[in-house]
Amino acid sequence: MTDKAKANILTDPMALEPTMGTIYPPPLNETSKGRKKRAIGDALGLTHFGVNLVHVPPGEVSSQRHWHSEQDEFVYMLEGELTLITDAGEQSLRPGQAAGFPANKADGHCLRNDSDAHAAYLVVGDRPPGDVCSYSDIDLHGVSSDGRGIAFTRKDGSPFENKS
User: Fold this and answer.
1) Cα–Cα distance, 82 to 56 (Å, whole number)
2) What is residue 30's DSSP assignment?
3) Containing domain of residue 60, as a range?
4) Residue at 142 is within a domain
5) Residue 23 belongs to a domain
């Protein structure tokens, strides 16, 4: 028997503790309160890109409509049906379909669950330091200095304060 290390294997991603909702400041987090995200990539020790299993309940959205300056994003539908919203309009995504969002393409995207059932997808994105996240429909601006966390301000650079 050799002394080689076994590959990292996650036998049950659903056993990971989910993060509920989003990291958006209130009240911008209200439309995604029931969203569950399981950080599969983190659980496997990946550092150069993130892999997340995301569940979106009926009537909620995956995120605010956004695009990244440096980060590519890839979505692969697993179950249910979601409506992809971009500048080009709306289209359905069903299991087995994929969508890609290239870095620095100023076309905000999000996924909305218009159905009566939960929907699930995998999202994969690289983690470039200095990524700027622009939000198409709201007064929010995000910067990731380390490629992992994000700091929010208003688009004019002023601190974000809850004005609800």
Assistant:
1) 9
2) G
3) 19-128
4) no
5) yes
> Do the domain assignments include residue 28?
yes
Nearest 10 degrees: CA dihedral of 57, 142, 88, 80?
A: -20
**CA 11, CA 111: separation in Å to the nearest integer?**
27
Q: What CATH number is given to the structural domain containing 108?
A: 2.60.120.10
Do the Cβ atoms of 58 and 47 come closer than 8 Å? Answer: no
Query: What are the DSSP E strand ranges found in 13-129?
Result: 19-20, 36-39, 49-56, 66-68, 73-79, 82-86, 89-93, 98-101, 110-112, 119-126
Backbone angles phi, psi at 58, to 5 degrees: -55, 140
pLDDT tens-place string over residues 95-154: 999 999 999 999 999 999 999 999 999 999 999 999 999 999 999 999 998 878 899 999
